[in-house]
Each structure stands twice: as C-alpha cells, then as structure tokens.
C-alpha cells in the first residue's frame, strides 16, 4: 500500500504521531525524494542527520532488528542463525 501524505498529522495523540511518523519515513525513502533531498544537503547537515537518526536507531532497535529489518540482512533471520558474519567482522551498533 502506498503511503498517504494526507494522513500525516502530529501532536494530537501518540498513536497518530506514530502512524504519521511511519508514513513520513516511507515517503522519505522514495527514491526521487531521497536523491533530490540528499543532493541538496551540506556535508554538515548530512552528518548531523545521520548521527541523529542512527542514535535513535541504536536506542530503539536491537542489533538483530537493525540487521534483519533495516538492512534486510537475511543472515539475521531467526530461521537462519548458522550463517557466518560478513567479512568476519561483528556489526556492533554501539558505534
């Protein structure tokens, strides 16, 4: 289902805020928007945004969720736990 920007509304309730944020994030992930927006950010803005978002990701997702859900790393699926780590390195989110 395509996200509906008309459904975005913040500040009325936590449930609506969460639903609106999910829609907002989906819209941010649209290729055309992401490429245009990223192309207009300064280096400082890129670093600030990346640091802030990754800080929230570290706070609210486990390492497994980060790999499995965000990175779509199938080696972190509960059904497939016997796969070795990529490049022999741990992908610790602690930064």
What structural class do you assign from the helix and strand content? mainly alpha
How can the largest sheet be summarized? none
Order of helices and strands: HHHH
Tally of DSSP β-strands: 0
Indicate the radius of gyration in whole angstroms.
16 Å
Mean pLDDT: 85
Task: Give the count of helical stretches.
Answer: 4
What are the low-pLDDT stretches, counting only 5+ consecutive residues below 50?
83-91
Q: Hey, roughly how much beta strand do the residues contain?
A: under 5%
Global geometry:
globular
**Percent range of helical residues:** 40-55%
- Give the N-to-C terminal Cα separation: 34 Å
Explain what this protein looks like in three dimensions:
With 95 residues, the chain is an all-alpha fold. The protein folds into 2 domains: 1-40, no CATH class; 42-80, no CATH class. It is built from 4 helices and no strands. The protein has helices at 14-28, 31-40, 43-60, 63-70. The radius of gyration is 16 Å and the shape is globular. The model is unreliable at 83-91 (pLDDT under 50).
Any key phrases for this structure?
globular; 95 residues; 2 domains; 4 helices; mainly alpha; 54% helix; single chain
List the SSEs and their pairings.
Blueprint: H1 14-28, H2 31-40, H3 43-60, H4 63-70
Q: What is the structure about, briefly put?
A:
The protein is mainly alpha-helical and 95 residues long. 54% of the residues lie in helices and 0% in strands.
